[in-house]
């Protein structure tokens, strides 16, 4: 680790707060901000999370869903165990994952996956969009009606491609950058709220019913979001 990087980290308030609160990563605050603002994690929810190591988001998700809820966390990297979180040490593309998730249903699908950074922005952006599309494909397959999807993406000109595929499956679609996301970073989050249901006929035992209310809650005082709401129908 470079000396300058180490010094920047020490002066980063989210990094220090994550250390103080035993949150494993400063990224935990990003999910906390998103969950505070949007109805993506409720008590009792079942959550599927991609790109979970070292477990900052898993800890936050677990706090929101509580004892009655559960989190399935997918990442090839190791993660110390968290009660109520099942870690599947696999890549999202792994054929074994399909077998493992067969018949499962979730109210929320999260992705904080980042590609291995090459330094060439066009490449990193394209890989990041591919990861959003992969997570989104799982969301469309496994979400219950009314469910939510959240994914990190490095902004760029290929993003509308993923949005054209995914946004029409949701009542509301947002692009947002929570306060804990560094301003200089090109990362942001896309959110789909109010999953409309799988296009294929539902299987026996699937929950059915109207979409949940999807109005975002007001931002907490003092937080700065850069936000844009996109009408999913405009992408059809
Ligand atoms: C920024 S870290 C996630 C941090 C985590 N949200 C937290 O709060 O601790 C990104 C993660 O994405 C994972 N990742 C990258 N490509 C992946 C893939 N194809 N399948 C699953 N996970 C992947 C990496 O292994 C890495 O752990």
Write a structural description.
With 236 residues, this protein is of the alpha/beta class. It has one domain: Rossmann fold, CATH 3.40.50.150. It has helices spanning 3-11, 13-20, 27-37, 56-65, 95-101, 121-142, 159-166; strands spanning 46-50, 70-74, 85-88, 106-111, 143-154, 170-177, 187-195, 226-230. The chain is globular and about 55 Å long. The structure holds S-adenosylmethionine. Residues 24-25, 27-28, 50-57, 74-77, 91-93, 112-114 line the site of S-adenosylmethionine (SAM).
Please sum up the structure shown.
The protein is α/β, with parallel strands linked by helices. The chain has helices at residues 3-11, 13-20, 27-37, 56-65, 95-101, 121-142, 159-166, and strands at 46-50, 70-74, 85-88, 106-111, 143-154, 170-177, 187-195, 226-230.
């Amino acid at each position: 680790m470079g000396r300058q990087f180490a010094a920047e980290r020490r002066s980063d308030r989210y990094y220090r707060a994550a250390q103080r609160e035993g949150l494993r990563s400063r990224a935990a605050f990003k999910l906390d901000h998103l969950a505070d603002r949007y109805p993506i994690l409720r008590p009792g929810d079942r959550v599927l999370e991609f790109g979970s190591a070292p477990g900052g988001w898993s800890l936050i998700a677990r706090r929101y869903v509580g004892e009655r809820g559960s989190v399935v966390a997918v990442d090839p990297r190791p993660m110390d165990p968290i009660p109520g979180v099942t870690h599947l040490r696999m890549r999202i593309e792994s054929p074994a994952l399909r077998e493992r998730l067969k018949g499962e249903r979730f109210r929320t699908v999260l992705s904080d996956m980042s590609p291995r950074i090459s330094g060439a922005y066009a490449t990193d952006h394209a890989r990041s969009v591919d990861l959003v599309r992969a997570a989104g494909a799982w969301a469309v397959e496994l979400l219950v009606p009314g469910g939510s999807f959240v994914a990190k993406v490095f902004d760029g000109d290929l993003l509308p491609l993923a949005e054209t595929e995914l946004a029409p499956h949701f009542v509301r679609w947002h692009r947002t950058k929570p306060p804990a996301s560094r301003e200089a970073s090109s990362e942001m989050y896309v959110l789909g709220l109010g999953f409309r249901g799988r296009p294929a006929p539902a299987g026996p035992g699937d929950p059915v019913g109207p979409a949940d209310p999807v109005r975002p809650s007001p931002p907490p005082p003092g937080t700065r979001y850069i936000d844009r709401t996109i009408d999913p129908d405009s992408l059809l």
